[in-house]
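Here is my example:
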Amino acid sequence: MRINALSVANYFIELAHMDGLPITQLGLMKRVYAAHGFSLALLNFSLLDHRFDHVEAWKYGPVIPSVYHSFKCYKNNPITTKTIIVEWDERTRSENYITPELNDNRARSIVQTVWNRYKDYSDSEMVALTHKEGTPWALCYQEGKNNEIPDAYTKLYYEKLVKNIVNT
């Protein structure tokens, strides 16, 4: 299976459960976006499958709609299970229920790094990070519009962030 936002989200949930830490839909969303940004900056590699995934500027920061819709049932409560997807098997003419897994070692390394960096941040702290002046969200957000955040904006921002981290 290709890397996509849901496989990244499921891996964050796995890491949270291994560390015994709660993760909410909002916190998950911000961490998936951060992993996508760091991956673009460090590897020039997207963690999104652009056939299905894209990033939008919503009121509380960057949102990947596929992740939002998969976990919105949790509201502000901790996520307890990974999401599944349903695929149609034309050969057997039946549905297959699949848990998206992140199997790419580079992607797993990025997600682990982001988890270790941000696992102790609250949801509001994660939102604040994405709302800073000059962030891709700040450049794209218009109330009620859900504008798309281009990968080019995200990559440029995270390249600068990586330089700041390395130089401190």
User: Anything to note?
Assistant: Residues 3-165 form one domain.
